[in-house]
Amino acid sequence: MKLVLATHNKDKITEIKALLQELPIEIYTFSDFDNFPDVVEDRDTLEGNAEKKVREIYEITGMPALADDTGLFVDAMNGEPGVFSSRYAGENVTYADNREELLKEMIDIPEGKRDAVFKTVIVLIVNMNGNYVVEGRCEGYIGFKEKGNMGFGYDSIFYLHDSGKSFAELTLEEKNKISHRGRALQKIKKVLEEITK
After folding, report:
1. pLDDT tens column, 72-93
2. Largest Cα–Cα distance in the chain?
């Protein structure tokens, strides 16, 4: 089976490939196509954005496609940055810009009130008969400073309750076992296993 990943994010591609590598699937990415669009994420839900991405890529490539959308939802910030996580500090910003903006906004929020949840929604389209939709979540809290040098995005400021470690202190293998994207990918992996039997 051929599967195209509907993203330009190389970090996401690395995580997805690592989790799906045992399956009998040939994975394609944006670098395999000349006309791979940068889909505008203008929906107000993670599922809406993922579905938009996957449908556009499916229509252009004619191949089964998989897309995810991920958001960091902070309780004390009324769920922000949420669907705007990748552009929280503005358009065309770096991961560091987004982390800096969030830490600045949360500067007065005390320990114990900084709970957050990461959510990933994955949408898989194999043919025109419909989509498969799964969700993964991981609960934690936003630290006061960055720790670790692994991962990407908000990983260095998102800490796990049980270990007190940030995502950026975990190896890719450790992170994929417990993260929001890892959990969503485990669910979609089961779907793909059924499809490729």
Report:
1. 999 999 999 999 999 999 988 9
2. 53
Q: Taking a C-beta distance cutoff of 8 angstroms, is the pair 182, 15 a contact?
A: yes
User: Residue 156 sits in which domain range?
Assistant: 2-195
Q: What is the pLDDT of residues 45-75, one digit of tens each?
A: 999 999 999 999 999 999 999 999 999 999 9
pLDDT of 27 higher than 90: yes
**pLDDT by residue (tens digit) across 174-197?**
998 999 999 999 999 999 999 888
Give the closest residue to 53 by CA, choosing from 32, 67, 37, 71. 67
Question: What's 140-194 look like in SS3?
Answer: EEECCCCCCCCCCCCCCCEECCCCCCEHHHCCHHHHHHHCHHHHHHHHHHHHHHH
CA-closest candidate to residue 47, choices 117, 133, 126: 133
Catalytic residue numbers? Answer: 69
DSSP at 32: G
| Count of CA atoms in the C-beta half-sphere (13 A) of 148 | 22
- Residue 40 buriedness (CB in 10 A; 0-12 / 13-18 / 19+): exposed
State the total domains in the chain.
Answer: 1
Provide the CATH number for the domain around residue 100: 3.90.950.10
